[in-house]
Design a protein that fits this description.
alpha/beta; TIM Barrel; 8-stranded parallel beta barrel; two-stranded antiparallel ribbon; 10 strands; 39% helix; disordered N terminus
Length: 284
């Protein structure tokens, strides 16, 4: 999964390959040609080291391949395949990707878990996805949610936490995020991915929807505190960007890498927004 950040200085380890590109998904819903054009521009830009993989639905693979043939990329596109066709569609989707290895490099496969995070289902995920591809499974929040997170980790997959969406109930509370972090950090070697509504670095209220959004910098600092025994909930609840940035900046390289081994990446509809926030906070 390691993609060396380009440039003479590269990118600080805490932010290297942090932001995965989910421009094809709500709220952006960018058309395929425009999404790919913007992705390749970002990959060639000065902050390319912050950029992770490109997310695409399994159902849109033919469209993705058609556009990539037009683009003729110099290197295969690092891809995370989002399974929207059910578990049974995974082998075919992976076969399509592998047949176009000159265009696509499959790094990750992501899918929602059934409501009970069934053990047999998890075994099938392991069987369908090649060993060198990261498996990301999203348990649904609700009764028994954290048990589902534990099962996902035990089967060698990354759990995914959804941090927002189109409705208020899609936003987990500070306590729910803190409990999730506690479970993942308590499992040696486990990593997680986050998604949805983490457009900005710092926790804030969105003026349009009125929803309180979690910040990806809050999540990074909270992960660091989780590993060091600090106050995780206070980090998640903070709206003080300057203080969060100072704490992030003070992390030594081994600590920063440990944080990123825990909090592997998150999906963002916009790459420009998180990079702009990091720039304003003087973290790049």
């Amino acid at each position: 999964m390691e993609l060396t950040p380009p440039g003479p200085r590269g990118i600080p380890p805490l932010f290297a390959r942090l932001v995965d590109d989910s421009a094809l998904f709500p709220p952006a819903d960018v058309a395929m040609p425009e999404a790919l054009r913007a992705h390749f521009e970002s990959r060639a830009g000065q902050h390319a080291g912050v950029l992770g993989v490109f997310l695409c639905q399994a159902s849109r693979l033919p469209e993705l391949i058609t556009e990539l043939i037009k683009v003729k990329p110099k290197e295969p596109l690092p891809l995370s395949l989002i399974i929207d066709t059910g578990l049974g569609g995974v082998p075919k989707a992976i076969s399509i990707v592998e047949s176009r290895s000159e265009l696509l490099s499959l790094r990750m496969v992501e899918m929602p878990a059934p409501s009970d995070v069934d053990e047999v289902w998890l075994e099938r995920v392991s069987e369908f996805v090649p060993e060198d591809v990261i498996r990301v499974v999203e348990p649904r929040r609700g009764v028994g949610w954290l048990d589902g997170v534990r099962k996902v980790i035990e089967h060698g997959s990354w759990p995914k936490i959804r941090c927002g969406g189109q409705a208020g109930e899609n936003f987990p509370s500070v306590d729910e995020v803190a409990d999730f972090l506690s479970v993942v950090s308590g499992s040696p070697g486990a990593s997680f991915k986050a998604t949805n509504s983490l457009h900005r670095a710092v926790r804030h209220v969105d003026p349009g929807s009125g929803f309180t959004h979690h910040g990806f910098l809050n999540l990074l600092v909270a992960s660091a505190r989780c590993l060091s025994g600090g106050d995780v909930r206070a980090a998640l609840d903070s709206t003080d960007g300057t203080a969060l940035a100072e704490e992030a900046r003070a992390l030594q390289e081994p600590a920063a890498k440990a944080v990123r081994e825990l909090f592997a990446s998150y999906a963002a509809a916009s790459f420009a927004e998180p990079v702009a926030d990091l720039g304003r906070l003087e973290l790049l």
